[in-house]
Amino acid sequence: MFGMGWPEMMVILIVGVMVFGPDKLPEIARQAGSFLRGVRRMMDDARRDLSNELGDDYDQFKDLNLRDLNPREFVRKQLSDAVEAEPDPVPPGKRPLKNGERPPFDPDAT
Length: 110
Prior knowledge:
Elements: H1 6-20, H2 25-54, H3 58-62, H4 71-84
């Protein structure tokens, strides 16, 4: 849950007992649980409303990973795809320059 294991949960429990006391801790846990249920209910309602409004287009957004929208991730993905791709073959009618050969020069283009 939230990337936390049993040791982290125990530390939170011990700190909670020390700060709030053992008599108030169950009430605080009950309030936290009702708060999380309320947040989950709001998320489900928002998802349902979005699905109703978008209709068939909702399927495009349902599996969207928000991390993919980060510009850094986009650039990283594009660069890794470019590195993994095979180099472009030499276009037909063109050949690579030989060692020491000068590239063609077009005086009208300059």
